[in-house]
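Our preliminary data section would be incomplete without showing what the modeling component actually yields. Below, a chain of 222 amino acids is followed by its predicted structure, encoded as tokens that our downstream tools consume directly.
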Amino acid sequence: MRKVTTVSLNGNAYQFEDSAYEAIRAYLDHAQRALADNPDRNEILADLEQAIADKCDTFLGKQKNVVLTQEARQILAEMGPVDGAADAGAWDAEQAVPEDDEIPPSQQLVARRKRLFRLPSEGMMGGVCAGLAAYFAVDVVWVRLGFVVLTMFTGVWFFVWLALLIVMPAARTPEQMASARGDALSAREVMERAKKKSAEFSKAAASGLRDVERNLRETFGR
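Predicted structure:
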């Protein structure tokens, strides 16, 4: 029998084996120190928590509601180190679980599998074709062309597409988008996304400021 700890990851409750919880907590504490001087620190930490929560979801289901030690180790190995401090590279997922904590043989490392999602952000009509293309690793153009040709010969394929639009879940989070291709979101990608989002915000703010200045000159400069 093993103790279980309930924690909140970005507002959602998850149950961990005690050693799994300690590994996750140590990783997030490490990330907090590594990002101490980063202006986007709070946003990145929230995104890291969400990414870990999404990875936890891949191990949970109706018959399983606890994240096991080996699963936590795999999650942290996928996340990788958080850059930003001198000791950031010191993080080692293999050392995340204490050496004296025995892991039952039944807790085998789970192979990452692709998950079938719609990709609305990459699609033209709901992201069905984009999701199928990602899952089967083919060019989305061929999938779209196939649907068009088949629909021209028989209208049944339109209803197939409509059924898939309803049945396939939409990939909303970065981790889900990565899972659609069989990949795993890493901390590096989370930080790059935050940096890109911050740059886009700064660019939009600067553009808005220039527009305000131009309007003021046009209004009062005469």
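Residues 85-90, 98-109 have pLDDT under 50 and may be disordered. The helical segments are 18-34, 41-57, 69-79, 128-136, 140-153, 156-167, 174-179, 187-220. Preliminary results of this kind motivate Aim 1 of the renewal.
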